[in-house]
Amino acid sequence: MQSVNESQELPTLTLDGEEIAFTPGETVYEVSTRAGKAVPTLCYDPRLEALGSCRLCVVEVEGQRVPVASCTTRAEDGMKVTTASAKVEAQRRTLLELVASENREVTVDALRGVASQELGTLVERYDAGGGRFAGAQSGASRPDDPNPFILRDYDLCISCYRCVRVCAEQEGDYAISMANRGFATQITVEFGGHLQDSACTFCGQCVQTCPTGALADKKALRFAGDGTLNRGS
């Protein structure tokens, strides 16, 4: 007699030539990560609803005209996926060069936050820090914010929205948001004020999800004697 598990076989997709079983509802990114594929991303946080804005996680799917964001694409039975073709890797490198060109610096103190090294790690991995692109920078830091906990160094912001979303989706505080568009895009609080005058509870979730160190732990940096505090607080 056939067991329940045997009669309910999981669907499969082909990932870089290998057949992988997945649970219905999983995204291509989740399947790829579970299979050990190093698909890059800057806007993804497993605690948050996938957004697909950074476009670094794009993969090629047979039958699709253009690469798709793997974090927002549901896995389908029989799907054939290529995670790191030459075309996709070249696209990722260009995107990272564009992102890095907007920031004052890419290499920052690891004490800024748990995720603060993500951009620097990817720029190094793709050798994308050569300065091929240069021009305007987005994000204006707030050295005038007197709060003792969070450094708002927005010269390093890449508008990934992770801080805004973790504040809303995980904490329910809705203390920070995005204002303006293009190079004028800015992380802000109501009326462009200080964090201590907003709904912020200083839980630190925004600091811990920031992939560039644009939001940083002032106490940790102060303990380490980081000169950034003289510039940004």
Automatic annotation (TrEMBL):
Which GO terms label this protein's molecular function in UniProt? 4 iron, 4 sulfur cluster binding; metal ion binding; NADH dehydrogenase (ubiquinone) activity
Q: Does the keyword Zinc apply?
A: no
Give the InterPro entries listed for this entry: 2Fe-2S_ferredoxin-like_sf, 2Fe-2S_ferredoxin-type, 4Fe4S_Fe-S-bd, 4Fe4S_Fe_S_CS, NADH_UbQ_OxRdtase_75kDa_su_CS, NADH_UbQ_OxRdtase_ferredoxin, PSI_iron-sulfur_center
Q: Where is the 4Fe-4S ferredoxin-type domain?
A: 148-181, 191-220
Which UniProt keyword terms apply here? 4Fe-4S, Iron, Iron-sulfur, Metal-binding, Repeat
Q: Which GO terms describe its biological process?
A: ATP synthesis coupled electron transport
Q: Where is the 2Fe-2S ferredoxin-type domain?
A: 11-87
GO cellular component annotations of the record: membrane
Q: What is the protein's name according to its record?
A: 4Fe-4S dicluster domain-containing protein
- Tell me what organism the protein belongs to: Caldilineaceae bacterium SB0664_bin_27
